[in-house]
Amino acid sequence: MERFGFILHPLEVQDITRKFSLAERLPNHWLETMFRHSPPIKVSHITGVRSPQGTEAEGWFVGCLLTSRQMLELPLPIVLDKIIKAARKAKELGASIVGLGAFTAVVGDAGLTVAQNVDIAVTTGNSYTVATALQGIRYAADTMEMSLENASVAVLGATGSIGSACARILARDVGNLVLAARSLDKLEKLAAKIRTETRSDPVVTTDLAEACRQADIVVAVTSATNAIVEPEWLRPGAIVCDVARPRNVSRRVAETRKDVLIFEGGVVQVPGNVDFGLDFGFPARTSYACMAETMILALEGRYENFTLGRDLSVEQVDEINRLAAKNGFHVAGLRSFERAISEEWIAEVKENARKARRVPASS
Fold this sequence. Notes:
- It is a single chain.
- This protein is α/β, with parallel strands linked by helices.
- The protein folds into 2 domains: 2-127 and 268-335, no CATH class; 135-265 and 339-358, Rossmann fold (3-Layer(aba) Sandwich).
- Helices cover 38% and strands 20% of the residues.
- It is built from 13 helices and 15 strands.
- The chain has a 6-stranded parallel β-sheet with strand order 8-7-6-9-10-11. It has a 5-stranded mixed β-sheet with strand order 2-3-1-4-5. A 4-stranded antiparallel β-sheet has the order 13-12-14-15.
- Strand 2 and strand 3 form a beta hairpin.
- Helix 6 (126-143) crosses helix 7 and helix 6 (126-143) packs across helix 11 (289-299).
- The longest helix is centred in the N-terminal third of the chain and has 18 residues, at 76-93.
- It is globular, with a radius of gyration of 20 Å.
């Protein structure tokens, strides 16, 4: 039996009150102060993960009790200490590898310091997150009846490690590729690299808004700390994949643009009769890609640091994709703002986009 752990944290105070109902009676700032000084906790025991190869795994969700706001605003040493203690808790429970979830994979140096301070393998799950985001783009394009071969795709934050990997992989399949970021020099270097690797001839720009306005598909992976993609930037029927943490796309886009399909990555089908012991808003036996990467590595017995830091390679993405397929993991849908997207919602977006395209520009 292989064993893994995965670190969760409350995205907002309300997530704490859902777990501990008595906490509803306390002010938010009291709760944040209380949990800031709390040790990590075992949230649930995960059972039933079984690959087609016959390998089985069990695991544990471990709670690092800091909200997203605290992760970003508290002094970094305090945040890292909390994450390191949560990783040690995972090992104490029996895990041989631990995955970093949500903002625990973002703060500081993206897992490097954590890995240096624990006697357990660590991964952020970013490689499979990118792989499933790209699979999600293909799934969304097919659902929206959009041809990738003819689509114009804009990658925002293309010169970052995740953005670069996304752009280089997408260049294999898409019609037109636009690379957008702040540094024109870095963009030109990336474009030159893509030209040597593929037949693609990317366009580069530092104007993110204009890149979005011309795109059928937008991949947002910038390092901005606030949402930057505005509703006015997007054309009807556009597909927007927001891989960034913190998000690049604000809730206002989702609230006002019902003719645009926004998602953050793939919902992953986990092999076996898995029981997570926790409801995080997904259909049964499905998970986030970052969780799945940790399970995949455990099933493979790959108890080694895998995706760490901000230097993500195409080779890593391709490798975890191969291992996922081997072990029976695959994308089973899309997610948006921590919830699975229904087929009914996608159909509604398609219909709204058709109507928006028929409305004259002057109306």
